[in-house]
Amino acid sequence: MNSEAPTYEELRNAALAAAAPRTRSEGTAIACDRLVRIFTSAGVEVQALQGLELTVARGDLVALVGASGSGKSTLLNILAGLDVPTAGTASVGGYDLLEMSARDRLRYRRETVGFVWQQTAKNLMPFLTVAQNIALPMQLKGGRRGGAAARRAGRVGELLEALEIGALADRRPGELSGGQQQRVAIAVGMANEPAVLLADEPTGELDSETGAAVFEAFRTVNRELGATVVIVTHDPMVAGEVRRTVAIRDGRTSSEVLRRTVTDEHGTESVSEREYVMLDRTGRVQLPQKFLEALGMEHRVAVDRASDHIEVRRDDAEDPYEGDGAGGGAEPAAP
Ligand SMILES: Nc1ncnc2c1ncn2[C@@H]1O[C@H](COP(=O)(O)OP(=O)(O)OP(=O)(O)O)[C@@H](O)[C@H]1O
């Protein structure tokens, strides 16, 4: 028997650690752990989410990107409380999305999340003015105690100002441009001060200049009103401007780009970005498709552990350590 093989006790402890829910800190707005959503239609099963893991810190502004069919809308619908996952865990603003009662779900959708959809018509009531549209979620939430009407009016005024749509307060949606409608939709989504604002392709129907102005409005609610914002987008402008872009592939989070502003010794600011791939608790990573294609990697790859990194190379690539008595610095992987 191989003396380096893990003992039963070690395997058991590793399995228990992997099965334990991840600890969620106070600063976490969204935590999804091994999220699965299976759709069945006409007897055929589609695994839209296949063990997705995602943590979003409070106050973050995150873009979700991915090919068509990768599971973005499925995830957003779950986070919006419109759909329920098949397995896994998901919590937003302290609500457990799998265990909510119908009553909690209603309250969650009214108070904890706001949404902005791509279709501008889906966001606004056509027969109400802009100010009335913004007040509506607050009226639905209720609150008849003294001063509720004044508080609502105050919040409407605050949002009209923050989103620079005060001049549109008495217009109806049909009298607004697409970009103006989306800015109003952001105000409606923010009316009840949700912990998280979710948006599905909010700039998808807009030209690039208008889309940039709408994206700026998301930045405003993130920065000035403190909302955590998650935007599903195909728009490279949006994906390239946020601090964190998360890519979904085949129903899992596969990679992330993190950007930060760095200042050099002359005081000049520039944005540095770095790509990361997700490592799940079973040790799986999804290597970027472009890397795999560039290096002709498929089916199986050779893996070596160096002292401070792991090397992945094509299965048929020449072994760099062959004939090197010193082992080239690589050490056998620990069990
Ligand atoms: N209600 C449903 N019934 C059956 N299959 C579904 C349903 N909703 C989504 N799917 C399937 O789940 C997978 C993920 O779909 P989803 O809409 O989440 O992808 P997406 O990344 O949002 O795509 P797009 O960018 O085109 O909107 C797809 O294969 C889709 O066909």
UniProtKB/TrEMBL annotation:
Residues 306-316 have a biased composition (Basic and acidic residues). Residues 324-335 have a biased composition (Gly residues). SUPFAM superfamilies: P-loop containing nucleoside triphosphate hydrolases. Keywords: ATP-binding, Hydrolase, Lipoprotein, Nucleotide-binding, Transport. Its EC number is 3.6.3.-. SMART domains: AAA. InterPro entries: AAA+_ATPase (IPR003593), ABC_transporter-like_ATP-bd (IPR003439), ABC_transporter-like_CS (IPR017871), ABC_transpr_LolD-like (IPR015854), MacB-like_ATP-bd (IPR017911), P-loop_NTPase (IPR027417), SpoVT-AbrB_dom (IPR007159). It is an enzyme of class 3 (hydrolase). PROSITE patterns: ABC_TRANSPORTER_1, ABC_TRANSPORTER_2, SPOVT_ABRB. It holds the Pfam family ABC_tran. Residues 306-335 are annotated as: Disordered. GO terms for molecular function: ATP binding; ATP hydrolysis activity; DNA binding; transmembrane transporter activity. One of its GO terms (cellular component) is plasma membrane. It comes from the Bacteria. PANTHER family: ABC TRANSPORTER RELATED (PTHR24220:SF685), IMPORT ATP-BINDING PROTEIN (PTHR24220). This is Lipoprotein-releasing system ATP-binding protein LolD. The gene is lolD3.
